């Protein structure tokens, strides 16, 4: 049995928090492109040096780099029982690449969870996070830029999965525990 799931939603909608909890409970890897880029930057690898200014500005890393990263990651042993992708795909080109990758390995997506949150709450949450974590991209200007890119490029990805019927919409303005309970129930059902 495999569970292949996407978490989509704006900045501050709680994707990372929920993915960490769900992955711990279900033993599937949490594949976050943002975490992978931040790790590469911290380690100052060739990839890290290349993407550092892009991530700091809140712009999207070029698709070729991002898609290659995901392709390698989901080929690893620990991802053979499934994965939660968090922060990918972020535009239509990435979604099309993901479709092709999953088709080749014969593993369709089981569910796309969309964390729905208004911009004002998203901004407040991202700014609150800036006080806890030292993320270079959690400044008011860069948060606004990331949200603008979200609406321009990622919202069409949400619409795409809504059209294919795999979308589970979540009201992400609720508490972490309430959102976790809803996703857990859906996971229990998927894992039957
Ligand atoms: P958030 O969702 O809060 O913006 P992430 O941790 O998902 O944060 O991403 C941080 C940054 O990493 C993005 O602003 C972007 O520069 C880069 N990044 C992450 N995922 C992708 C992706 N799928 N495509 C391009 N760039 C990405």
Give a description of the structure.
With 192 residues, the protein is of the alpha/beta class. The protein has a single domain, classed as P-loop containing nucleotide triphosphate hydrolases (Rossmann fold). Helices cover 59% and strands 13% of the residues. The protein has helices at 15-26, 33-43, 46-57, 63-74, 92-104, 119-132, 140-164, 176-190, and strands at residues 3-8, 30-32, 82-86, 111-116, 167-171. The protein has a five-stranded parallel sheet with strand order 2-3-1-4-5, with helices on both faces. Helix 4 (63-74) runs parallel beside helix 5. It is globular and about 45 Å long. The site of adenosine-5'-diphosphate has 17 residues, from helix 2 and helix 3. Residues 11, 33-34, 37, 54-55, 58-61, 66, 87-88, 90, 94, 137, 146 line the site of adenosine-5'-diphosphate (ADP).
**Main β-sheet: number of strands, strand sense, barrel status?**
5 strands, parallel
CATH architecture: 3-Layer(aba) Sandwich
CATH class: Alpha Beta
CATH overall fold name? Rossmann fold
End-to-end CA span: 9 Å
Mean pLDDT: 94
Portion in helices:
55-70%
Spatial strand sequence of the major β-sheet: 2-3-1-4-5
Topology at a glance:
Layout: E1 3-8, H1 15-26, E2 30-32, H2 33-43, H3 46-57, H4 63-74, E3 82-86, H5 92-104, E4 111-116, H6 119-132, H7 140-164, E5 167-171, H8 176-190
Parallel strand pairs: 1-3, 1-4, 2-3, 4-5
Helix pairs in contact: 1-8, 2-3, 4-5, 6-7
The chain binds adenosine-5'-diphosphate.
Keywords for this structure?
5-stranded parallel sheet, 8 helices, Rossmann fold
Summarize this structure briefly.
This protein is α/β, with parallel strands linked by helices.
